[in-house]
Amino acid sequence: MSSFEEAETEETVTCLHMTFYHPCQEDKMMFRCLNFCKREQVRADEMAKFGRDSSVCRYNLMDTRVSRIQFSLQFYRKLNSSEFCFEIKNMSKKTKLTVDQTELGYLNKIDLPWKCIICFGDYQILAEIQEGESMDYFETYLHLAEVPILQERCLPSLQPIPEKAISSSLFPSQGKSPIEIDENES
After folding, report:
1. The FHA domain covers which part of the protein (predicted)?
2. Taking a C-beta distance cutoff of 8 angstroms, is the pair 15, 139 a contact?
């Protein structure tokens, strides 16, 4: 047998892509301690912590408004499954953390969806999980966004606009109850 045939099968690695945005990044450089555009390996039994305390957190955010430990990510495998996931836990007593539409208070945790937006304060983080097979470690791959990840101002409103918001001078019958008319009647 050749050495090629005897070589170990190459395992794919789960990778968590995270794109960071803050409106004051250019002025305050709060992401200056993060390694962007470089994959980093994290042991599966380590908890990836984000915050301003460099002695505890692997990913440092240089902002006094950020908690010492803002949030943590735990890599795990689902019971009776080969699927790997991340659990996100809010570690801040002062700031709520939002994962998509779910608000997490202090010590609340949920499974991180495959693609989601994490928000706290003015911070926006797009998280995307790329599946892998390795049980020993996972990778993080950080990116910096130059424009807001959430474009709320550009999204059309999904809330119905109440008729009372329309000027009553345009509709003199405003305030009267609707009258039902059979379509065959004229």
Report:
1. 49-121
2. yes
Task: Please state which of the ranges 90-104, 109-123, 142-156 shows the lowest mean pLDDT.
Answer: 142-156
Interior angle at CA 95, CA 98 and CA 42, nearest 5: 65
pLDDT band at 150 (very low <50, low <70, confident <90, very high): confident
141 CB-near residues (< 8 Å, 6+ apart): 15, 16, 17, 18, 37, 38, 39, 40
**For the chain, domain boundaries:** 15-151
Of 1, 10, 30, nearest in space to 122 by CA: 30
Whether domain 15-151 has CATH 2.40.240.20: the reply is no
Residue (of 176, 152, 179, 144) closest to 163 by Cα position = 176
Mark out the alpha helices in the chain (DSSP H runs): 3-6, 25-28
pLDDT of residue 62: 96
Nearest to 102 by CA among 94, 93, 91, 111: 111
Give the strand pairing for 15-21 and 84-90: unpaired
Map residue 109 onto helix, strand or coil.
Answer: strand
The residues with which 98 forms a beta bridge, in sequence order, are 103, 119
